[in-house]
Amino acid sequence: MKPRKSGNTIKPISFVVLLSLVFSWIFNPSQVNASSLHKVSFSDVAVFFQFGIQSTFQARLQSSDKVKEIVLLIQSGKETPISQPLTVLDNNELIYQLDLAKNPLRPFAVTEYWFKGRLSDGTSFESDHYSFEYIDNRFDWQTTTDGRFTVYWNSDDLALGDVVLQVALEGLRSDVTYLPVSPPLPVRIFVYSSGKDLQDALQLGQMTWVAGHASPDLNLILISLPPAIEQRLELERQLPHELMHILQYQVSSDYYESTPPWLSEGLASLAELYPNPDYSRSLEEAQKNGSLLPMKDLCNSFPTEASLALLAYAQSASFVQFLSDQYGISALQTLLQNYGDGLDCESAVQNVYGSDLSRIETQWKQETLGINTGLLTWRNLAPYVFLAFLILIPPIIVIVLHRRKKGLEKFKD
Ligand SMILES: [Zn+2]
Q1: Lower CB count within 10 Å: N or C terminus of the chain?
Q2: Residues 340-378: pLDDT tens digits?
Q3: Is 143 helix (H, G, I), strand (E, B) or coil?
Q4: Strand 40-50 to strand 110-119: parallel, antiparallel, or no bridges (unpaired)?
Q5: 316 CA distance to ligand 1 centroid (A)?
Q6: Would the pTM of this model clear 0.70, i.e. be above it?
Q7: DSSP secondary structure string, 331-372?
Q8: Ligand 1 centre from 245 Cα, in Å?
């Protein structure tokens, strides 16, 4: 697929040119004299990668003394660096090939790498730190920006980027009514033309239901938008949702990952301009079958199985809507702030609403879902009562018969 440019709005960016060569090349033009004693220098430092397959790191080393040992350190995002011992080749070259299927780098994050070693005279040395952005270069990306958002898309649709920009702005306007904070701009949005390509990029394996993803610490959104009649509606659902995660990160930052998903996903689902029509169906079915998930089970993670995941999203959206209607949006913002301060799932709810999660859950079931919780409790207990009855009946019969027999014997006497 060849990239097309849609008029003046599409600005070619440097990495697109590089990506068209399949490999990426990051070159530091200046020769690096790394050792404090100026004994070692590095040149022709470069990295080539095929996203998800392999990355080749290379450099040329000049040294006044023999190199006793040298390692390459690779750090993806904030992960612990991996260290790989290297051998200096005859022409002073250093080459290392990293299997990206076995050692995946964080997609779209900056990967840093550098060399460290020791000379035969015992002097240690360390090179400068080099970096590259691990962009998904399996595709040629078209791009456009309005300053607030920069959109990249891999379909042939010339107008798609401008539509995405428009929906992103509408989504942001909707999002800030729930959470009035501004994200760092521009937010990068990558639009895949296939859900599978997005899932492969994120290495999601079996989670084939995932359509969009936000990496708020990278100020990055990935969405999938297969060509379809309802493409615009899908965009109006996914984009405001993922943007809301970017806004949440501005509030909860370091504690973003530990914010209970019922709140983060519920809030993000509320912000969707076109709500997911499957939510109400899923909620109704679970209500009918008595298979609603306890909200406390959604404090740490969501189920990965598709229908349960859908139910978890549906419940969270409904529950957060209830909290918003009942206690106001500012209490929800305070709740998010409490999680941002590191409070756990139950404590923050208690702190903000003065009630525990299960009690509010009961209220939500009664008032939003119209469930008679007393009847529900009885229905849940009924099998146990019946079982107890079955267990107790035989001994009672035995006792009664025994007493009757005794009575008869007494009568005979
Ligand atoms: Zn989400």
Answers
A1: C
A2: 999 999 999 999 999 999 999 999 999 998 876 555 555
A3: strand
A4: unpaired
A5: 11
A6: yes
A7: HHHHHHHHHHTT--HHHHHHHHHSS-HHHHHHHHHHHTS---
A8: 7
